[in-house]
Design goal:
The protein has about 150 residues and is mostly helical. It has helices spanning about 5-30, 35-60, 65-90, 90-110. About 65% of the residues lie in helices and about 0% in strands.
Amino acid sequence: MTPTPLTVSARVAGILGGLCWLARAVLDGTGAPAPAVDGLYWGGLALLAVALLAIGAGLVSGIATLRVLVAVCLGVMAWSLLEFLRGQYADARVDAVAGVVVALGCAAGVARRRPTAPATAAPATPAAPAASGHRARRGPSSPAGRRRSPAR
């Protein structure tokens, strides 16, 4: 399965967003200026939201409304999990772990979805007929295989 540019872009956004949250946790402990720490938090949040929405939309194929619903539900579920964990542990630590988890997951997705076959592969040749001289078996869908129903 070849990745689409949207999928790759969303996963790169997830990697960058996760790294932003990890850097925020590191800088928060060193006494860095508040605007830098806040910028990393909000920038990482925006990038992670884009990644989660795209990943959620990619979970479903078909109706666009269902894709949007699943994408929003995945984002809300991740947000509720983060809020629960923030109530139990330190905010910066939870954000750092969540950022690393999303970044590693997105990096694995980018590495796994690379096409393995070259784009200029030769077209497949049709199969040769059987050497034994037997004809292909005709099933009920072929004209010779259909039976006529008795006339009434």
